Fold:
Amino acid sequence: MIRKLLQRVFKSSKQPSQAPARSGHGAKTIPASVHRIDRKLVSVGALKTTQQLQKAGFDAYLVGGAVRDLLLKKRPKDFDVATSATPEQVNRVFRRSRIIGRRFRLVHVMFGDETVEVSTFRGSHLSPDEDNARVADSGRILRDNVFGNQEQDAVRRDFTANALYYDPSTEEIVDFHDGVADIKAGILRMIGDAETRYREDPVRMLRAVRLSAKLGLKLDKATEAPISKLADLLHDVPPSRLFDEMLKLFLSGHAMESATELRKHGLHHGLLPLLDVVLEQPLGARFVNLALKNTDDRVLADKPVSPGFLFATLLWHEVLAAWQKYQKAGHRPMPALHMAMSEVADIQAEKLAIHKRYSSTMKEIWGLQPRFEMRAGKRPYGLLEHPRYRAAYDFLLLRCESGELPAELGQWWTDFADADSEKRQAMLLPDHQPKKRRRRRSGRASSSGNPSTSES
Ligand code: ATP
Ligand code: MG
Structure:
């Protein structure tokens, strides 16, 4: 479908009079009649930013994902501007702006609710200036914050489709690496030698998988080929950076496809070491696939998604396995669950630093699961009032849908939440537990429920 759309968009490029002109430094200048970007899709803030910088005598273009998305007729979620002005010069042009970042100094320019990110053209990472560009033994770039010209800025970007510069005032695109032609052909291609670029920054392998899934672009052969061989390089990437990329990957609206591609290229080992094991069991695979599909549906319907919920699903079957292990070793269900949760979260944290606010949601969702099996007395009322009830209930439904739990249990909670007080009373199961077993047994018993009262 995208190919058809692009053919329509670029139909006019076949006419010789409209062929892209080559500018001085090996770049093509592509007019609006050829690229057909709808300028109305450019935000007011982005327009004002480029206009005012240009008025102050600097070069200024929209760049990166926004231009790529405009060419693909997708509405960009944010706009980045690249300019010849230094951060201080940008800061002087805009009253409401501030310089941010240490490694990369950028300027945020504010217009009402909108923030436009402005970066100064960056120089080549191959600069001999040792102070500004450092390369590790593996080839990974540790610092690259030298300023440069537009051509140098283009060459240090990752994909040809991401290295396009759009000037809203002339409506022309400056294209150094034939990115427009690649987009037109439906291809995502790394600029330069792919292996070298992945060694410089292994996260580019994840970006390749994510962007090709999200944009419906096919990975160019030479761009795809080295990925499996280099997958292990992800081990050297700081866990916090991996986490940010993972979040984008799974919240792109194409999580299913992205996960399949990650596995195909062996990239998931470095991210979710436990996912491999889970996906080998039919029940685990079914659960994860359902969860990813659910996430994709929500993203595509513009509904909010919770990263904590998503990670809770990705790791659940690993928690289940560890939970059983601790129970077999003689621990009571609830302490065993908490031991399993910590074990799984710790193994995961070595690879991927899941932000604390997400991992606490994740643990709350897991910790509430046994309480859904307690359907007698006052306990179900307490669970309904819990602030995480809704997330934990959605999680329960996925467990039922995947076949891990009987569908009847999920239905019972759906009905119980909907029922009036009389009906709720009638729905409660008889409480067979002798009173004395209700006491807390040890300091380890969780606040989220006492397993000794479980029906199961
Ligand atoms: P998205 O739509 O997901 O935001 P994006 O391509 O805009 O995709 P950003 O992380 O916002 O991704 O990056 C903006 C631009 O910065 C990219 O389009 C690309 O030109 C450049 N870029 C980002 N990450 C890298 C990288 N790891 N190596 C080289 N260039 C990069
Ligand atoms: Mg972006």
Summary: Residues 1-19, 127-132, 436-456 have pLDDT under 50 and may be disordered. The chain is about 50% helix and 10% strand.
